[in-house]
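Marked as duplicate of an earlier ticket. Keeping the data here for the record.
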Amino acid sequence: MTTRGPLTVIAALVLAAQLGGCFGRKGADSEAGPQSQADVTIEVENQNFYDARIFLLVFGRRTLLGHIAGHSTEVFSFEAPPDDIRIEVDFIGAGGFVTRGMRVSAGDQLHLLIQ
């Protein structure tokens, strides 16, 4: 985890079982329609001042999921990979962090809280 000045970043990633219903897509492909059952969704709640880029890390490959403004919430979707994932948060102008690895399956819903 990288910090600059008094900035302290606390992240909690919670894997929630799917309990019916699904998040809508946001971001670049929001016009694509409802999420596929093969997708994993991640709701990112940024309670921090800084805007951030959110990346998916799989097999050492870094894929941009999207951008999130400070003090906002966004939902991103991606296909369930066959391996563990990590999420990277890159604050624009203020460092960032990477979560621990976790296994996900199609239909999982994740919640990432950035403080």
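See parent ticket for discussion. DSSP finds no helices and eight strands in the chain.
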